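Reviewers of the previous submission asked for a worked example of the structure-prediction workflow described in the proposal, so we include one complete record here. The input consisted solely of the amino acid sequence. No template or homolog information was supplied to the procedure at any stage.
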Amino acid sequence: TTATGGVVLNMVTKRGTNQWRPSGRFYYADSDTRSDLNIDESELGQAGAWNRFNAQTDFTQGNRVDFLRDWGVEGGGPVLRDRLWLWGSYADPVIRKLTNEDFIDEELGTAWNFKLNAMPYAGNTFTAFAWDDDKINHGMGVSSLRPPETAWEKSDTGSEPTAWKLEDTQIFNSSFFA
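From that input alone, the workflow returned the following structure tokens.
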């Protein structure tokens, strides 16, 4: 948690329990599942004498999502009951956006998590966690002044995994832990 002005994000990942619990998801949406925002001037009403200088022109939709597909799986459970637990997930989203000029801006991604929790002895817990989220964006910078041929590709260029954590906690008594 970061206690500064603006958005505060506190991310707590799932963990394995003494029962195996898998789950999955699938989400799909294309241009047929969204509203059409192309509005003709005739649908906006007549420009009367009182507003002849403020008559509305045709309205064309702006940047919008054209296609979205996202699937993922996750699961976790015991390796050693009451002592060692595993949890992991994997996701593969694809988001295709269209610009004002109907140029394609596509984002492909993969994300995975892995978490190991252990309780080696009473009062001690250990956690190992790794997370990676890689996005490749095709068509960056396309606009009416920059045709698709001049677009660039943006990708995660950092080290893998994106985040990792090792934590060991020892509880000595009700008012002291390290």
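The mean pLDDT is 81. We consider this example representative of the routine output the project will generate in years two and three.
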